Amino acid sequence: MHTVYRKIILAVLFLFSIAVVAAQHSGKELLLLRVYHFQEDRQEKLLDQYLQDQLLPMLHRQSVKTVGAFKAIANDTAADKKIFVLMPLKDARHFQQLSLKAFRDTTNYSSVPFTRVETILLEAFDLAPKLSTPAGLSQNRSEHIYELRSYESASDMAFRNKVKMFNEGGEIALFARLGFNAVFYGSVIAGSHMPNLMYMTSFNSIQDREAHWKTFGGDAEWKTLSSLPEYQNNVSHMDIYLLKATTYSDF
């Protein structure tokens, strides 16, 4: 049994390494999303202190110049609360270096600062190869909304079809035309909900977000694209997170 388990792990690592190398040679960025899960206010305070005073400064010293840190918008009553930390990576070696240095918290906590850390590695899409900081938002930073979406598919074929819909199908171009201020679009190459893609858009306010999605839903190009037979049934589940940037975020 242990031999079979080891073979499975080695196979997964091999496929992961192939995906990472392919991303490096394509010119597309690797993106890292770390999700810190916590339950209590005291844990949130400890996490904020750690991220602001230790992790982000360490990441900046490790040549990660732009790090986004996000929380759910006000009145987060969920039992499982989250802080999302998003960053670009140079390559697989950079990820390894960060794992050895930046992600080793040596603080001696008297209480546990989080319940779990989730690591998600993504490869940026062909038509959105780099992480972008929103350039079209207003100066009122406290009102900005960041929307993170995860689209899961029932099979690898359906997943590839949804990625194609974003790229060749024109969904990315549609978002750009309608001013969604995208931060990234990426295929998850290591995560807990595969096969899935994730993307993040940004808005001036919650009202601005609602107006954008209303326009999107009524757009003639979207109605045509979403009705094409080749793009049906390619998403089996979606998660939507409405977020705000923390005070220490680079966004």
Describe, in plain words, how this protein is organized in 3D.
- Pfam families: NIPSNAP.
- It comes from Flavihumibacter petaseus NBRC 106054.
- Residues 146-249 form the NIPSNAP domain.
- This protein has one domain (2-245): Alpha-Beta Plaits (2-Layer Sandwich).
- Residues 4-15 have low confidence and may be disordered.
- An 8-stranded antiparallel barrel has the order 1-3-2-8-5-7-6-4, surrounded by 5 helices.
- By secondary structure, it is α+β, with helices and mostly antiparallel strands.
- It is built from 7 helices and 8 strands; from the N terminus they run H-E-H-E-E-H-E-E-H-H-E-E-H-H-E.
- The termini are far apart.
- A hairpin with a 5-residue loop joins strand 6 and strand 7 (196-203).
At CATH level 3, the topology is Alpha-Beta Plaits
Backbone structural class: alpha+beta
First and last CA, distance: 47 Å
Mean pLDDT: 89
The tally of domains stands at 1
Number of strands: 8
Low-confidence stretches: 4-15
Q: Which range does the strand content fall in? A: 25-35%
C-alpha Rg (nearest Å): 19 Å
Organism: Flavihumibacter petaseus NBRC 106054
Protein name: NIPSNAP domain-containing protein
InterPro entries: Dimeric_a/b-barrel, NIPSNAP
Fold topology:
Elements: H1 2-26, E1 30-38, H2 41-61, E2 68-72, E3 81-89, H3 92-100, E4 116-124, E5 145-152, H4 156-166, H5 171-177, E6 184-190, E7 196-203, H6 206-218, H7 220-227, E8 237-245
Antiparallel strand pairs: 1-3, 1-4, 2-3, 2-8, 4-6, 5-7, 5-8, 6-7
InterPro entries: Dimeric_a/b-barrel, NIPSNAP
Domain NIPSNAP: 146-249
Protein name: NIPSNAP domain-containing protein
